[in-house]
Amino acid sequence: MDFTSHQSPLEPVLKDGKPLLADLYRPEGYDSKSSPPLPVLVYIHGGAWCVGDKAVGAAPSILHAASEHGWLVMSIEYRLAPDVHLPEVIP
Question: Is the model's pTM score more than 0.90?
C-alpha cells in the first residue's frame, strides 16, 4: 500500500497564532466513510523535546511497516523547549 499525507490543525494554538499540525498517513484508497476502521499509530518524533520535526526521524520506516499491516499513522508536532516546559509540550 502507498501512503498519502494530509495535514490538519490540532488545538490549542501557539502563542504566536501558529497551529500545531499533524500528518495523517493512510493506506491508498482508504475512505473514512466507507472503509472499515483501522488501528492508529501515533508517532511522536525524537529530539529530547528540544529539537526535531514531525517529518523527520524514524517516520519512513514506521510508515512502511504500518502500511504492510493496515495501520493509520498520525505524526504530530509538539512545542519545543526552551519555549515551553514539560508537561506543556504536548497539549
Answer: no
Q: At residue 15, what are phi and psi to the nearest 5 degrees? A: -60, -30
What's the pLDDT tens digit per position in 50-84?
888 877 766 667 776 787 788 888 888 888 888 88
Among 29, 24, 33, CA closest to 6 = 24
3-state secondary structure labels for all residues of 10-59: EEEECCCCCEEEEEEEEECCCCCCCCCCCCEEEEECCCCCCCCCCCCCCH
Task: Give me 61's grid cell.
Answer: 520506516
**pLDDT of amino acid 1:** 41
Residue entry with cell 504492510? 68
Question: How far apart (Å, rounded) are the C-alpha atoms in residues 47 and 51?
Answer: 5
